[in-house]
Amino acid sequence: MDPRIMDAVGFIGQFVSDHWEAMFGQDDISYALQDQGFSSEEITRAFRWIEDHTLGEAAQTKRKPTDAPRILPPSRVLGTIEAMKISPRAFGVLVGIYERGVLDVLQFEEVIERAMKTPGDSVSSRQMKRLAALTLFNRVQNEWRDFLHSKSTLIQ
């Protein structure tokens, strides 16, 4: 993998981690990357890498199937305000990601929450996929940070 792309992925991870509670969209991240000297192609490839490694087939095959049957919660229906912001197609994408076992219930709700905070009038299916990928990416990044800082690791 091109080191510039991995630098961009790292920058995206840091940006998402630093701004998780704030309202931001993909454009905000892209502008910040451009300010750091990354090209449009590098930015696109970095987002694609994140999607492939969180939602793609490579990520699916790395997950271990559980022995316990997957219990689906009752159907989630968008509220009136959520339905005005999240397109039916975008919600369908999110439900599909959830039903494949990529997201758990809390992550599913976290993606909806992030979608409601994104700038703009509506959230497209592409934006929803990216929000899901960034949510998973942020979760994995936080788990690694916690692991590396725990007292049970060799890193002191």
> Please, how many helices?
8
The mean pLDDT is 77
Number of domains: 1
Shape: globular
By secondary-structure content and strand pairing, the structural class works out as mainly alpha
Whole-number radius of gyration?
Answer: 16 Å
**How many extended strands?**
0
Question: What does the largest sheet look like?
Answer: none
- Give helix % range: 55-70%
Q: Any low-confidence stretches, pLDDT <50, length ≥5?
A: 61-69
* Strand proportion: under 5%
Task: Walk me through this protein's architecture.
- The chain is an all-alpha fold and 156 residues long.
- It has one domain (3-60, 71-149).
- The chain is 66% helix and 0% strand.
- It contains eight helices and no strands.
- The chain has helices at residues 3-18, 26-35, 40-54, 57-62, 80-85, 88-99, 105-117, 125-149.
- It starts with a helix and ends in a 7-residue tail after the last helix.
- Mean pLDDT is 77; it is low at 61-69.
Please render the helix and strand layout as text.
Blueprint: H1 3-18, H2 26-35, H3 40-54, H4 57-62, H5 80-85, H6 88-99, H7 105-117, H8 125-149
Helix pairs in contact: 1-3, 3-8, 6-8, 7-8
Quick take:
The chain has eight helices and no strands. It has 156 residues and is mainly alpha-helical. It has one domain (3-60, 71-149).
Task: Provide tags for this entry.
single chain; 156 residues; mainly alpha; 8 helices; 66% helix
